[in-house]
C-alpha cells in the first residue's frame, strides 16, 4: 500500500500526504527555505513529550472546543509576535482536529499567510480533520463558522502515534471512517463491519489500510472541489445534525455526534425511499458494533433551531447529504420548512388509542426512529 499521496486541487494547489513513522519522516518533510519552525500543539500532546520535536519552538494551547475562539486565537498571534515569527516561519500543527484547525487558521491569517503542515495525532484527525484544507474556528457556539480553505504543504499521518489514544477517542475517529465509507468505498465499510473494534485498534496492517482508504476517498473529492461548491458537500454526511447535537449536548464528542448524525440521516433517507431500510439498519448496526452511540440524545425541534443557523445553509435551503447505498450519496438542497417533516417522526399510537388524523405538537415524538 502506498506511503505517499500527492494531491493537486482544482486551483492548482498542491499538498502531500505521507503515511509513515513520525520520528523517521518528520524532519525530511520540513522545507529548507524557512527561517524557523514553530510547532503548535496542545497540553496533552506536549505532556507526551515526543523526543523528535524537542528541537523546535512550541506554542501550547488548551484542549477542547473552547480553544477554537478568537480570544484564544489572539493569544497564539501574540505568542508568534513575541517569538519573532515572520513570513518565512513554518508552522506545524501537532495534535488532534482542534489543533490542526487552529494552526491552519492562524497560518492562513498571520501576516496574511505563512506556510504550514500537519502532524495529526488522533485517528479522527488522520482520516478527516487534517485532510482537505478546511481550517475553522467557532463563534457563539457555532462550529467552524469562521474559517479558510488553505491546504497544508504536508500532512504526516503516523499510525504509531495513535497508541496513546483512549478507546473513546479512537472510536470517534472510526465514526469518520464509517462516514467516508458510506460516501465512496463499500469495501472500507465492509472492513469496519467485519472487524471488531479491538482488531482495528491492534492490527497495524488493517489500521493502515483503513487510514489510507479513508484519505483516498476524501482527497478524490477535494481535488475537484476544494472550496465546497458541489461534490465536496458529500463530506458533510451526518454533520448537519452532528454540529447541532454538539451545541445542544456538551458531553458528546465530535465523533460521537457524527455517529448519531449518520444514523439520523440514513433513517430519514430510508423513510423517503432513497435508501433501503435494511441498509440503514446495517449502517446503524455497524456503528453500534464499533461501540459508538446511535440514539439521538437531544430534542429534535431544538436541533432544527440550531440547524437553521448552520454554515451549510443558503437562503431558506440547507444542503443535506442523503445516502442511496453504501458508496453512493447525493447532495440534496432541502427547504428549511421541509426539515420538520423529514426528521420529526410522529409517535406511534398506544394500543388503547385510535390513531389521530392530525397529531398536535404535544402528540409528536421528538426523536428519530431507533
UniProtKB/TrEMBL annotation:
**Record key words, sorted:** Amino-acid biosynthesis, Aromatic amino acid biosynthesis, Cobalt, Cytoplasm, Lyase, Metal-binding, NAD, Nucleotide-binding, Zinc
Give the catalysed reaction(s), semicolon-separated. 7-phospho-2-dehydro-3-deoxy-D-arabino-heptonate = 3-dehydroquinate + phosphate
Does the UniProt entry include the keyword Repeat? no
Write down the superkingdom of origin. Answer: Bacteria
- Domain called 3-dehydroquinate synthase N-terminal: residue spans: 59-171
Q: Does the keyword Signal apply?
A: no
Q: What class of enzyme is it?
A: lyase
In residue numbers, the region (Disordered) covers: 349-370
Task: State the InterPro entries in the record.
Answer: Dehydroquinate_synthase, DHQ_synth_AroB, DHQ_synth_fam, DHQS/DOIS_N, DHQS_C
How is this protein named in the record?
A: 3-dehydroquinate synthase
Q: Which gene encodes it?
A: aroB
